[in-house]
Design brief:
The chain contains three helices and six strands. Residues about 1-15 have low confidence and may be disordered. It is elongated, with a radius of gyration of 18 Å. By secondary structure, the protein is of the alpha/beta class. The chain has helices at about 90-115, 125-150, 155-170, and strands at about 5-10, 10-15, 20-25, 45-60, 65-75, 85. Strands 1, 2, 3, 4, 5 and 6 form a six-stranded mixed beta sheet that branches. Pfam families: DUF922.
């Protein structure tokens, strides 16, 4: 039976949590020690990555009129929800898992780019929530497509194509990385 990798993607709307997270950083790659949850013994998967985009916003008002808004968009990895089977995992699978986290960052940058185009208006909350829903759907589709096309890391040629594509896209959207 082929090993299957499963990835879990979570998007939150500005919720405060004491849950341990790792914020995406181009200079820090995931290691197996970051995967702290116990493997699911019922699963055929050899690893599970939990990552997502946290999103929050605030608005300033004058009377009932919105005068300014600010947002916070971050890519997170959730160690206590991520796991791997030590005997079945290797550097190739870890690179596949890292790319899932990189894809999350790519969509966070796309989200920030869309937010940067918005002008203050009385519908800004509705616009932000719609953008969030749309980016969530796009991220989930991209993650599914990545696993499908790479056969969960088994197809090395497709894995390289995806790695190159994500690297190129992250560079293209460099101006929208988190500060």
């Amino acid at each position: 039976m082929k090993n299957i990798l499963i990835c879990l993607f979570v998007l939150f709307i500005g919720s405060e949590s004491n849950e341990e997270t790792i914020i995406w950083d181009a200079t820090k790659k995931l290691t197996w020690s970051d995967f702290k949850a116990s493997p699911d013994k019922e699963s055929d998967a050899v690893a599970l990555t939990a990552s997502g985009i946290t999103f929050g916003y605030s608005v300033q008002t004058s009377g009932k009129r919105i005068t300014e808004f600010s947002t916070l968009v971050e890519s997170h990895f959730y160690p206590n929800k991520s796991w791997y089977v030590k005997a079945s995992s290797d550097v190739h699978i870890l690179a596949h898992e890292q790319l899932h986290f990189d894809i999350t960052e790519l969509y966070a940058r796309k989200f920030r780019a869309q937010i940067a185009k918005l002008q203050v208006n009385q519908n800004i909350k509705k616009q932000l929530n719609k953008l969030h829903g749309d980016i969530n759907a796009e991220l989930n589709e991209a993650q599914k497509k990545y696993d499908l096309e790479t056969t969960h890391s088994i197809n090395a040629v497709e894995q390289r194509k995806w790695s190159n594509y994500i690297e190129k896209e992250l560079n293209r959207l460099e101006e929208f990385k988190a500060l």
